[in-house]
Here is the input.
Amino acid sequence: MYGEPGRNIVSVIDKTNNNVNQVSNIVSVIGTANNNANQVSSIVSVIDTANNTVIDTVNVERDPAAFGLSIDTVNVERDPAAFGLSIDTVNVERDPAAFGLSMDTLPALEPVLPVATFSINLKENYDLLSMQPTDMSKNATSRNCGFSAMVNSAEQDPTNTYPPTENNTINLVATNANSTDPKPATIMVLEKPVLPVAGAAPYTYITNYSSDTVSVIDTATNIITATVKVGKCPSGIAVNPAGTKVYVANYGNNTVSVIDKTNNAVTATVKIGRYPSGVAVNPAGTKVYLTNYGSNTVSVIETTSNSVTATVKVGKNPSGVTVNPAGTKVYVANQGSNTVSVIDTESNAVHLR
Here is the structure.
């Protein structure tokens, strides 16, 4: 729009071709003091841009020269000549002539970064371990899940299977336009415990001194499942760590009976010292130690051949015997001398008596 001084009109110019499309009449007011037509009062005409007609007039200060849209009231010096949109109130010098849109510079926004996170669901069967991560990433437009045993996958929640004897790694990478965020993890595979054979039950073995037998009791039901005939006056008894052999000290005939646990039958009888009473098997299951109460000795039996490999002199009337967890020391309780003998299993020598 352009106002033409002295003609009381406003020309509407099309900015696309700079042609005058319409001329609008505005109000010309004659001064009442002296009725001079050339003395114009301070009036602003409000023009409807839809039809370019004057819809209102506003009294302002003398000789207004600015036009445009005002959002806030601004006090300036006399005879302002600026036009445009003003958002903030600004004090300027006399006779401003600038026009246009003024606004504040907005602070830059912080970029939204992706955050990778997931949980793991593990399922195990007899041969393979199945691993499926549940993606819980935030601000991600895409993701990539890599396993140590397969090609990377862009699926939401991919599944990977691998042998349960191997460790596995996973790396989930969340991505958006601003950045990427990796989330690695290692799945540790623990040693699988050895479970009892299906149908098998733990047993306890009881020597019957006067019956020359050993009773086999099922501990799950407390029922005697077998009675095994052994030597005379069985006393001490021990089971090897594997649970496959049972060793019985026969006090009355100076022997050791070896019972096969699978069929509860005596598979060997070994001759040792007088009045054997105590029995102990080393942790490896390779040696059996028997106290000979009447001989003041300990017999050492090698379990593969069921033969005596050493006879160790200890205190008087040895009875109780045990082996340390490392299998390096044997401790013998000597009932008749009130002592304990310590045998070195490597040399079969007594260090303390």
